[in-house]
Amino acid sequence: MFNKILIANRGEIALRIQRACRELGIPTVAVHSTADAEAMHVRLADESVCIGPPAARDSYLNVAAILSAATITGADAVHPGYGFLSENAAFADMVEAHGLTFIGPTAAHISMMGDKIAAKTAMDELGVPLVPGSDGAVPDLDTAAKVADRIGYPVLIKAAAGGGGRGMKVAGSPEALEEAWRLARAEARAAFGNDAVYIEKYLDRPRHIELQVLADTHGNVVHFGERDCSLQRRHQKVLEEAGSPALTPAQRDALGQTVTAALAKLGYRNAGTLEFLYQDGQFAFIEMNTRLQVEHPITEMVCGIDLVREQIRVAAGQALGYAQKDIRFSGHAIECRINAEDPDTFTPTPGRVSAFHAPGGLGVRVDSALYAGCLVPPYYDSMIAKLIVHAPTRIEAIARMRRAVAEFAVVGISTTLPLHERILAAPDFVAGEYTIHWLERFVAAHRAES
Predict the structure, then answer these.
(1) Alpha-carbon distance 326 to 324, whole Å?
(2) How many domains, the chain?
(3) What is the pTM of this model?
């Protein structure tokens, strides 16, 4: 096992990793920007190192500063969390080159899955179903038109090197293709320094289903079930459920068998999440995230397994110690992402939190770095808390989440808690009848009524 782990992240995920390390008896090193000098992850770490000024490029993305902090503190492993450098293959390579262990997949697998075209090619070869589309990057508009004619409109043009909705445009007709093509390439070039794009069939009412997996270095691969992440705004997840109200246990098992067999052939290691679109009973792979997911707590709640602890154990060379048949799914879990944003306009609302009260009670979990008097800086992602509930049934989980949202108090800044109150009361949500397009329409309807 490791002697000391440096956590190359901030906020609630840094705290989450610290908790797992503390239970394993492993000291931690927190790195932080000057803006985060008083942050909770810094206060609770065994050691802390300031690695730069507020801007992420000068601190949490500063590879040299992070590696220097690991060296001077004697850390022998680095956990990247999610975001920042977590899916940076060059960073993973440099960590290993400095004699440290990167708590995550190999740099080769990070690189492969970071290129959406390479990822789709690999999954196709391994027997994982795909969305109909182009065979690799589409080099010019004429080729794009031929692909679109073959698979049928509407089509989705997507950046090969990115995610988060950037470099992604829909073309509903041949007349709209040229502008969508031009805009997608321009966005991709600006966001990722790479204007390569590919084309997929645009599905009009899919759900976003993802499968959590874990693989050790001894050839064992297991999955921990699915999460339904269909409630999205601008391709950003807002609320997630485990399991999906749209799937049966048999569908989960079939998808899990396909995915774990594929990753075993690939020789994958550590945690990962495969994301699919699901429509008309069919799954179609869209991408793989080679890291811990923001929404991992709902999987932990239904499986009773600490995924961060397992990441650390696997990175240290330990075998999983259990097989797929040993993993049991119990009840239903929901996660609400609480952002420091205006709940109607979604404008970021950084500032000082004058009072903070987290909900509690049976089956309620809050992952957050907030405390009364803390400052929410304007330099980073606006998510400030994750509210997670678990209950025997989905209906009970919804009731528990409504109660927990009503108890949650963040004073001094605006948050998206009122948005979650509206979602939880919506008949479509309660019935489990929603797709990845539902939330955008729901938000637009609320604005029209206001």
Answers:
(1) 5
(2) 3
(3) 0.93
